[in-house]
């Protein structure tokens, strides 16, 4: 039997703990990298911003979605959301389909809305810096 000094045992325990944590996180978020990149790029394009804060918020949104849905559920819901805007008869299959399609779309929209609400920074303008208070030009040299 090999006896490790105390420091090495603590190091090994930390490594095993990190591996266990990584394994559970990987299992919970089994979305392929390509899908994650596509989602984040589309999210950033919709926000019309390439700032780091938006990149973080978009990736956070997908992480929150991945906690509530499997990848297969996400693909089905995303397909219904995208293809309902298709013109013509083919799009009608997704727009006018059964109750399942409607419930999948509504569930996905609810999950996405909650995820965005928890990940995107709040845009708030304080009244102390508003032009009505005359504070917008307070830094000018007179």
Describe the protein in words.
- This protein has 6 helices and no strands.
- The protein has 142 residues and is mainly α.
- Helix 2 (33-47) packs across helix 3 (52-68), helix 3 packs across helix 6 (99-119) and helix 4 crosses helix 6.
- It is 68% helix and 0% strand.
- The protein has helices at residues 6-28, 33-47, 52-68, 71-83, 88-95, 99-119.
- The longest helix has 23 residues, at 6-28.
- Residues 21-26 and 124-142 have low confidence and may be disordered.
Explain briefly what this protein structure is.
By secondary structure, the chain is mainly alpha-helical. Helix content is 68%, strand content 0%.
Q: Write the H/E string, N to C.
A: HHHHHH
Number of helices: 6
Distance between the termini: 81 Å
Q: Judging from the principal axes of the Cα atoms, what is the shape?
A: globular
Query: Rounded to an integer, what's the Rg over CA atoms?
Result: 23 Å
Number of E-type strands: 0
Major beta sheet summary: none
The structural class is mainly alpha
Helix content percent band: 55-70%
Low-confidence stretches: 21-26, 124-142
Strand-residue fraction?
Answer: under 5%
Mean pLDDT: 74
Can you lay out the helices and strands and say which pair or pack?
Layout: H1 6-28, H2 33-47, H3 52-68, H4 71-83, H5 88-95, H6 99-119
Helix pairs in contact: 2-3, 3-6, 4-6
List keywords for this structure.
mainly alpha, disordered C terminus, about 70% helix, about 140 residues
